[in-house]
Amino acid sequence: MTLDATIEPRLRARILEAADAERQRLERNLHDGAQQRLVSLGLRLSLLATRLEADSEAGRMLAAAREELAGSLEELRELARGLNPAMLGACGLVEAVQSLAARAALPVWVTSDLTRRPPARVEVAAYYVICEALANVAKYADATTVAIDLSLRDRRLVVEIVDDGVGGAAPGEGSGLRGLVDRVEALGGRLEVVSPRGRGTTVRAEVPCAPSSLRPPHDRLPAPLAAAELPCA
Amino acid sequence: VRVAIAEDSVLLRDGLARLLDDAGFDVVAKCGTVRELMLKVDSFPPDVVVLDIRLPPTHNDEGLRAALEIRERHPSVGVLVLSQYVELGLALTLITDSADGVGYLLKDRIIDTDEFVAAVRRVAHGGSALDPTIVSTLLSHRRSDDPVAQLTRREREVLELMAAGSSNQGIADELVITLRAVEKYVSTIFTKLGIPSTRSESRRVLAVLTFLRSMPGSVPAAQRSALLA
């Protein structure tokens, strides 16, 4: 019995890691493959456009094709963004969450007392909790405002997402919360949803985060490196 | 104007080179890696570098680091970073001290060739070019009591163009108004927002972004405790 208790979280963590690596790979492929090709295609169309009269029939058709291409690129970008929060690695959790907040359909207020960055695994878990919680707010809560708070308390990263919507959220019913519970528990943390009917919903995740594991705010941007130190491609 | 390009997709690299060459630029380097780019830039600095934010080997942010490095070592070389996603945090990293000779655009913008070429030229001449989505992100969800809310629709349009790095003449052309009208709008905006006025067009990019940034969509304590109650 004790074995189960120790192995299971580790196994879960490995499954999650594998899934994350796969998402990252997919996103990379979209970026390096489809996106680059579509941008090149757009460039060619633009070069072609300079050889056509803008108000000729062919010119108008070409303009329409370019517009459609621009739309496809945008859709592709949003798809890839959802697969892998590229922002998270480069800028850190707080910036990534602020960026999510700015793109949300309703006002989202972000507060944080983080001055240093939690380990990558913890950041990813917190980020997904917030994404899912925001998606649920948009789908079910009928809320007017959301407040997100990120803080470090007692060697834990505490993430709280509070809305002023209709409440009554039941975890486990296709809300995507189940996957989040796995993600948070795999890191030894816990996820809690408080959602009394008519009184909004609070999603709260706590993930262990030792002070020694904290990284400087711009971990991905170390001191300038000399050209000679750069790895060969 | 001499330009160096760093982009690991051969297709896109050649497309960019062709586009800039057609537009009258002198394409002095076409690189697929940061290492190659740094060697070229160090030995013969161009006027401007156009580079992808994700370059080998990790495709994470090598391009951004190279851009910061070039700004440090060769302050007169403009850098225009192309990115799959445009994020405020990365933009602010690039323009920490100044927005002179800095560009940060969504990669898709290349397709609008005229605007893209104009942006490269602007950055080569020490100006700035920030993606419009950065400014619109900063302007979304503003609180009703914040000074931005006091701007008229027209003033807001001027603010967006100004923050993206447009010159007064560029704003006048875009909005089809006179240069004098633009100057008036700009000074009204600065007064309403309480930003110290500056004549340098790229310095004001930083001033405006810093201002918008200093008043993020953070909830006042009272409102927050009401939500949490």
Describe the protein's architecture and organization:
The complex is a heterodimer of chains A (233) and B (229). Chain A is α+β, with helices and mostly antiparallel strands and 233 residues long. In chain A, 53% of the residues lie in helices and 15% in strands. Chain A has six helices and five strands, in the order H-H-H-H-E-H-E-E-H-E-E. Chain A has helices at residues 2-49, 57-83, 86-91, 93-103, 120-141, 177-185; strands at residues 108-112, 146-153, 156-163, 190-194, 201-208. Chain A has a five-stranded mixed beta sheet with strand order 1-2-3-5-4. Chain B has 229 residues and is an alpha/beta fold. Chain B is built from eleven helices and six strands. The model of chain B is unreliable at 216-229 (pLDDT under 50).
Q: How would you describe the shape of chain A?
A: elongated
Tally of helical runs of chain B: 11
Q: List the helices and strands of chain A in order.
A: HHHHEHEEHEE
Helical residues, percent of chain B: 40-55%
* Oligomerization category of the chains in this entry: heterodimer
Topology at a glance:
The complex is a heterodimer of chains A (233) and B (229).
Chain A: H1 2-49, H2 57-83, H3 86-91, H4 93-103, E1 108-112, H5 120-141, E2 146-153, E3 156-163, H6 177-185, E4 190-194, E5 201-208
Parallel strand pairs in A: 1-2
Antiparallel strand pairs in A: 2-3, 3-5, 4-5
Chain B: E1 2-6, H1 10-22, E2 26-31, H2 34-43, E3 48-52, H3 62-73, E4 78-83, H4 88-94, E5 102-106, H5 113-124, E6 128-130, H6 132-139, H7 153-163, H8 168-175, H9 179-193, H10 201-214, H11 221-228
Parallel strand pairs in B: 1-2, 1-3, 3-4, 4-5, 5-6
Helix pairs in contact in B: 2-3, 7-8, 7-9, 8-9
Observed structural traits:
heterodimer, A: 233 residues, alpha+beta, five-stranded mixed β-sheet, 53% helix, 15% strand, elongated, B: 229 residues, alpha/beta, six-stranded parallel β-sheet, 11 helices, 6 strands, 13% strand, disordered C terminus
